[in-house]
Amino acid sequence: MGIGLRSSADRLELLCPAFSRFTACSLLCTLAVMSSQTHFGFETVAASEKAGKVMGVFSSVADKYDIMNDAMSAGLHRLWKRRMISVAAVKADSTVLDVAAGSGDISIGMLKKMGSRGDRSGRVILTDLNGPMLAEGARRVIDEGFLAGSADCIQSDGTQLAFADNSFDVVSIAFGIRNFVDIEAGLREFYRVLKPGGQFVCLEFSRPVVPLLDVVYDAYSFNAIPAMGEWITGDRDSYQYLVESIRRFPDQGRFSKLIKWAGFDLVKHENMTGGIVALHRGYKV
Ligand code: SAM
């Protein structure tokens, strides 16, 4: 048993003398084993396995990712993302980090809002853990006419960002944080790399808040989405994971608490499409 566990057991014994040293140690060992486990959709997996499994999902669907987004959401993801970009506090000279940028919809929207095509000082960095997804993002950013210097791609894990403290005016993440092995570690990293006064914006699936919408939404997502995934990408399992990972993710209120816990102030959220998606905002004051 490590020193950390031994001293934690000492503290538990101090706090509650009725706790025998043996009980305290076994409780802490059980908690340590549990904390090395996580969820991949509805499956319980070792935390060390999850990142590889998530990478498998996105490598498998990267080239059909955009078509599937339109098909699954009947185009609604464009409206959700448009709203996210409209609330993002970007100006012509902002420095933006788009985490889990994938095929680059948010980055491109931010660049357009900044009017930045290499002729201004503004800059968006697209970062993603997955090479094939980031390659799609790079291709689309270039096709849109944005030059290196105003848009750059850097492969990086959102829970261990390869950027200095206090570097960005805005940190954005859309439909990415749900896939992280450690959501809290990601939020702490976003806080660390934001400049004081900077804004964090996050778009993610959430919980329907309109009566009966949850019933319709469950029926649609558990039946139609995996079938669509199989038909369009030839990969049913990745879309089964998508649906399950949405149900595992904290609801609007719990996610707001996690954002506050990571250090952000003035945290608020707005529901879209009856709470199927929520847009959270927070500030490093
Ligand atoms: N933001 C894009 C959008 O809204 O279309 C892409 C979202 S896609 C559903 C999720 C992205 O999260 C994938 O590109 C995946 O590679 C990325 N991702 C998953 N885990 C990550 C991590 N730990 N760090 C960075 N990116 C990650």
Describe this structure in words.
There is one protein chain. This protein is an alpha/beta fold and 285 residues long. It folds into two domains: 3-35; 55-211 and 235-283, Vaccinia Virus protein VP39 (Rossmann fold), CATH 3.40.50.150. 50% of the residues lie in helices and 20% in strands. It has helices at residues 3-15, 21-35, 47-61, 65-73, 76-87, 105-114, 131-143, 183-193, 213-233, 236-248, 252-261, and strands spanning 37-40, 43-46, 95-99, 123-128, 151-155, 168-174, 194-205, 265-272, 277-283. The strands form two sheets. A seven-stranded mixed sheet has the order 5-4-3-6-7-9-8, sandwiched between helices. Strands 1-2 form a two-stranded antiparallel sheet. The model is unreliable at 1-19 (pLDDT under 50). S-adenosylmethionine binds at residues 54, 58, 100-103, 105-106, 128-130, 133, 157-159, 174-176, 179-180.
Look at the structure and give the mean pLDDT: 88
Low-confidence stretches: 1-19
> Any idea of the CATH topology of the largest domain?
Rossmann fold
Provide the number of structural domains.
Answer: 2
CATH-defined architecture of the largest domain:
3-Layer(aba) Sandwich
**Structural class estimated from helices and strands:** alpha/beta
Tally of individual helices: 11
Q: State the end-to-end CA separation.
A: 41 Å
Q: Can you identify the CATH class of the largest domain?
A: Alpha Beta
In total, the number of strands is 9
The value of Rg in angstroms is 20 Å
Percent helix: 40-55%
